[in-house]
Every structure is written in C-alpha cells, then in structure tokens.
Amino acid sequence: MTLFLLRHGQAQPDYMDRTRPLTRKGIRRVVRLAEFVAGNPAFNPSEIWHSPLTRACETANLLAAHLQMSDRTRALEELRPDADPAAIVGRFDAFHEDLLLVGHNPHLRRLIGRLLYPERASEHDPGAVIQVKKGSLIRLERPDCFRAGGGSGPEWLLSWILPPRCLEK
Question: What is the pLDDT of residue 29?
Fold first, then answer.
C-alpha cells in the first residue's frame, strides 16, 4: 500500500479557520502539482480523503479535477488539524488500496511520526522531525510483508517528499 500525504495549499489569513479559502498562489501551486503528478505511475491513489475544512476541500477538489477523480473524494473529520492520528490510521489500515490524504499540520506531522516511528507514538509530537510545508506531497509505502504481520523494523517507509518550490517555474 502507498499512502500519499498532501498538506493543503496556501490559504487566506483573514477568515475564520474552518472557512479559510486558498490564495491565488495556493491555487496555482496545487494546479502545478496536479499537472506534475497526472499520468505519473509513481502517483496512483484510488481515492482522495480530505479534511472538511475549506482549504483542504479546495486542495483536494483541484487535484481530483485534474486527475479525473472527482467522484472518488471523501471529507473525513479524522483529518482535521486537531484530530488524533490513531483515528485515521484505523480507517486506512482496513483499506488496502493506495490513498491520498489531504490535511493540515499538526495532524499530518503527527501522523507521519506515528507511522514512521511507532515506538514514539505516545510522545506529544513524534513527527516533529518531519517538516510538512503547505502544498508538500509526501509518499509513504507499507511493504506487503507488514500487512501479513511479518517483517521487522518500521511498518511504513518514507519514499519521498516533494515541496511546492520544486515545481516553481
């Protein structure tokens, strides 16, 4: 299974947190990312799960439109910025296809920490070693041997991080 994590694009600062829309720059960067990953065999999620907050919904919908996946998006409370990462882990552990999660910090950072460093999951912020900038796309992989309960070491492996400035023209 491959898990793609995307932090929402840059959002307007002058709105209530739940309703903050993307800025023009945020939209431009998400569209560039969508154009970059469209048709790339290294990016193949079967569904897009996103936070219900406006900036994450807009990010997910822009990406879904470019990838022709508009009918395969889901808003989940488990992806809110203050949600416990354990809740979303329980949902995708039962899902065996590749996924894209669109969310926020500190949730994404904590989720990454929980997946890469499960022995530190009880810490307040086990993902503090991973920076997740707005518009960054991260790829994590879970080898098949871990699904079957075999293997040793971390269950998830970090494949790559694509910060938005890498796609600037």
Answer: 96
Cα separation, 121 vs 115, whole angstroms: 8
Q: What single string gives the DSSP state of each residue in 88-106?
A: HHHHHHT--S-EEEEE-TT
pTM score of the predicted model:
0.91
Q: Which residues contact 88 (CB under 8 A, 6 or more apart)?
A: 49, 76, 78, 79, 101, 111
For domain 2-167, the CATH superfamily is Phosphoglycerate mutase-like (3.40.50.1240)
Q: Tell me the HSE value of 104 on the side-chain side, using a 13 A CA sphere.
A: 22
Phi, psi of 29 (to 5 degrees): -70, -40
Question: Domain-by-domain residue ranges, the chain?
Answer: 2-167
Which tens digits make up the pLDDT trace of 121-134? 666 565 566 789 99
pLDDT higher at 46 or 119: 46
